[in-house]
């Protein structure tokens, strides 16, 4: 990674983060009406991580995601109209309305899928990384996973595999402080404060960054991805962040300290911090950011309206997009 | 000997959980230092400090980081292994996992009357402690990335030396030396310091804090310069050796490699050696204020970007000989050995020399 971000890049990054935020805020509201089937897990508050990484990726690079995958999808370039329709279970959805929130995938843009299984993403990223290595196409895989998944055997096995085979995989730990409702402090003796400590044991470089600071994430992501792309092997970046909503929509969140989210929204919000930096440095006028805010609000409005108006999948579609035909 | 001991022999330990974790592990071959290892270091410090009789150690509180782990290890160590520990006291303070934790803890340790503070971290951590410790001596131990101010020293040994000073067995005046610092004032209000180096960079944000792109560094200021240093201080050290004891500092203006007065290859971070061009060399004299205006970019202190500058920002930088006191660990142990402080009470006894 060299040079600074251009103004165009900065505006694009801000738009992505704003899209994620408004998408999630709107899902939060709409889910309460009962119109959205299934479960949703919202990414609001963690935008700097997904966007900070995906800004360094192209469509040939792959990401694997989690149950909290909307942010990763948007950051990687999945169509927002299709995503909203997918979450509403409509025929026009990214996966024909048959996947829902936790199974949005779009291989055309390198999004291997959100995933309902905690810790299922790291092996997928290793598989994609192995494909990259065998094809020698210079692509990179990035796996986003949480502090809960960090304790899963799949994650440990994947870190070991990635190091053993020198795979171009970047492990991105989104440490939002709660594995569903449990702090990492209660689930391990090693790497409780900095889970990155564990990754070093496998022999890969591992760092911890402020996951709410877009610029810190962006710099770390750029170095880790470029290193992997050049053949330097896997790396591990722990991003300390906070989700603004519960583990799932409807979570009473009795495990949270009172005022935690309010404080974070006021003083540690990734979008506000981004805006403060670029405006203070005279890189972008605040009016330009406000214009993006309005455009994104309208875009999300349009996505919800279109999703609600779209048809549901035909019953016959149950027999398509499956591995076995009957 | 016991009668000479000061009544309050409390010691503070600042062990930065974030040190040794930053981006330099990606862009260079820098080592990491895990929480587990830092906890182990603190354990060795505590056991060492107990030899001369330190009674109480203050730590930043946490549930599962260094302090939490240390309490578990202490309970295991003292019960199962017969280890002799000082009392461990956790400071009553909120923890935000930010630099403010260190500043707050140092302030409270000073108020609690600690005799000295042991610091585990890199140059950045030591800078934070130095900004609030006044004349409380520091034992500066390295666990960070670019470590020019603190030293690599076995913690058991450093703990014994710290204990000798904290208990008064070796006087502060015999044990310590005064360090130089760079003071920086931004817009005539925000004042900070650097122990090792101050850089003006072209970066437009603070981001991951570390400074490793030579093409973005415009100027370097150092209070001392040694060619065996690592980081931006090493660049100055290659130009001119300025000891910690001398009353000078150095100011370099950089340029692209191959231009200017000279080009040198300097170890900017562990394993990262880059060509650096030197355009101008200026000696810094104490209290001579360098005033700069119409700058953009960032100011880095001891290798970490701290402040962003705007066109209207004014910057004052000066060398101050009145920096923090640091304990010279080898010298303290030499004195203790010469004076027989570490002998057991008698040839028949295996009791610790200061055991009551």
Offer a quick outline of the entry.
The complex is a heterodimer of chains A (326) and B (356). Chain A is α/β, with parallel strands linked by helices.
Structure description:
- The complex is a heterodimer of chains A (326) and B (356).
- With 326 residues, chain A is α/β, with parallel strands linked by helices.
- Chain A has eleven helices and five strands.
- Chain A has helices at residues 7-31, 47-54, 70-76, 80-87, 121-135, 153-164, 196-200, 214-229, 260-267, 270-280, 286-309; strands at residues 62-64, 141-146, 169-175, 206-210, 235-240.
- Chain A has one domain: 3-Layer(aba) Sandwich (Rossmann fold).
- In chain B, the strands form four sheets. In chain B, strands 12-13-11-10-9-15-16 form a seven-stranded antiparallel beta sheet.
- Chain B has helices spanning 24-27, 35-50, 66-80, 99-112, 123-130, 155-166, 172-175, 232-239, 329-338; strands at 11-15, 56-59, 87-90, 116-121, 138-142, 176-178, 181-186, 190-194, 198-201, 217-222, 249-255, 262-269, 272-284, 290-293, 297-301, 304-309, 314-320, 325-327.
- Chain B has two domains: 2-179 and 324-338, Alpha/beta knot; 181-320, Tumour Suppressor Smad4.
- Chain B contains nine helices and 18 strands.
- The chains are: A alpha/beta (326), B alpha+beta (356).
- The A-B interface holds A 2, 4, 184-186, 189-194, 196-197, 200, 205-209, 213, 215-216, 218-220, 223-224, 227, 235, 237, 240, 277, 280-283 and B 17-18, 21-23, 25-27, 32, 34-36, 62-66, 68-69, 97, 203-209, 213, 296, 308, 310-311.
Spell out the blueprint of helices and strands:
The complex is a heterodimer of chains A (326) and B (356).
Chain A: H1 7-31, H2 47-54, E1 62-64, H3 70-76, H4 80-87, H5 121-135, E2 141-146, H6 153-164, E3 169-175, H7 196-200, E4 206-210, H8 214-229, E5 235-240, H9 260-267, H10 270-280, H11 286-309
Helix pairs in contact in A: 1-2, 1-3, 1-10, 1-11, 2-3, 2-8, 4-11, 5-6
Chain B: E1 11-15, H1 24-27, H2 35-50, E2 56-59, H3 66-80, E3 87-90, H4 99-112, E4 116-121, H5 123-130, E5 138-142, H6 155-166, H7 172-175, E6 176-178, E7 181-186, E8 190-194, E9 198-201, E10 217-222, H8 232-239, E11 249-255, E12 262-269, E13 272-284, E14 290-293, E15 297-301, E16 304-309, E17 314-320, E18 325-327, H9 329-338
Parallel strand pairs in B: 1-2, 1-4, 2-3, 4-5
Antiparallel strand pairs in B: 6-18, 7-8, 7-17, 9-10, 9-15, 10-11, 11-13, 12-13, 14-17, 15-16
Helix pairs in contact in B: 2-3, 2-6, 6-9
